[in-house]
Amino acid sequence: MSTQQTPMNRLFKVALRLLAATAVLAVAACGDSDTTPIRNGDTPLSITGQRLATANFVLGAIDQREMDGPADYKLGSNDRLRIIVFGQERLTGEFVLDGSGNLAFPLIGQVAANSMTSKDLERAIAGKLDPDFVHSPSVSVEVVSRRPFFVVGEVQKPGSYPHTAQLNILNAVATAGGHTYRARQDLYYLKRVDRDGNLYRVRATASTIVRPGDVVEVKERSF
């Protein structure tokens, strides 16, 4: 029996390969190939949304840190601070926390400011200055600008943007130019890093609060 392939046979095999490849792509588009772990219980909601019982049912427990005001804001990498040591002009100015959330401050060197509040950092600086450098210093710490958030996926202008208080996903997407026509608008993901440096995701809706440093993922919808 001849093993020579006819043009029709070759065409048929090519068509089968194309069909198989199309099927694989379709499954990949509909599925979620991201292996980043999902933590449902860490999903924050908008402060204007439903109360705790509804929040727990829909998206998991509210993260209390997202309900905090400016005084309770947890400092992190790339936050810009205005620090004043009253009566000490050389120790007064604006400082940016490094990638690990550390503050490089005159005279006292590195201060591990990550996850501190402004008040915590005030006490830490004062404690390191007194008594060797400044006696009973009065220190003020103000957050000038928070670390940025990021928007990726099906938006017009993916990238990093300055964070503002009470920012939710709808605002974040609008800041990035809005959805593309392919965007799914009923489910989003937020990628963030916990205090131990572990990357994870949370499921989100348009009203979910976005933290500084979060990555907002806008997925492609299935057609």
Notable characteristics:
single chain, 223 residues, Outer membrane lipoprotein wza fold like, wza like fold, 10 strands, elongated
Q: Can you describe this structure?
A:
The protein folds into 2 domains: 33-68 and 148-218, Outer membrane lipoprotein wza domain like (Outer membrane lipoprotein wza fold like), CATH 3.10.560; 74-145, 2-Layer Sandwich (wza like fold), CATH 3.30.1950. The protein starts with 6 loop residues before the first helix and ends in a 5-residue tail after the last strand. It contains 4 helices and 10 strands, in the order H-H-E-E-E-E-H-E-E-E-H-E-E-E. The strands form 3 sheets. A 5-stranded mixed beta sheet has the order 7-6-10-8-9, covered by helices on one side. The longest helix has 24 residues, at 7-30. Strand 6 (149-153) and strand 7 form a beta hairpin. Helices cover 22% and strands 22% of the residues. Residues 21-30 and 43-68 have low confidence and may be disordered. It is α+β, with helices and mostly antiparallel strands and 223 residues long.
